[in-house]
Amino acid sequence: MTSPAEALLESFSTDQARTLGLHLLADLNLGLVRAQAGQSLDDLVRNSACSWPPPRRPRPAEACPLS
After folding, report:
1. Which of 10, 42, 40, 36 minimizes the C-alpha distance to 25?
2. Helix, strand, coil % in the chain, rounded to nearest 5
3. Rounded CA Rg of the chain
4. DSSP run (H or E) holding 4
């Protein structure tokens, strides 16, 4: 089953239009996550970078070099 976002991107006729559409969807998604989390975009990126990919074993918080 195709998601609404995938269907929207497939409706664009050129690679350039699909790329711009993807950027727009990513920007909207980040805005929604930021609004729900109540954090700045910098904090969200920092937290995401420190937790992705998920660790295979627990590690101390100070192990993140971006903190």
Report:
1. 10
2. 65, 0, 35
3. 16
4. helix 4-10
pLDDT digits (tens, 9 = 90+) for 52-62: 666 566 556 65
Entry pTM:
0.54
Rounded to whole angstroms, the Cα distance separating 49 from 55 reads 12
How far apart are alpha carbons 16 and 22 in whole angstroms?
Answer: 10
User: So what's the pLDDT on residue 14?
Assistant: 92
Other beta carbons within 10 Å of 46: 15
- The secondary structure element, H or E, covering residue 11 is none
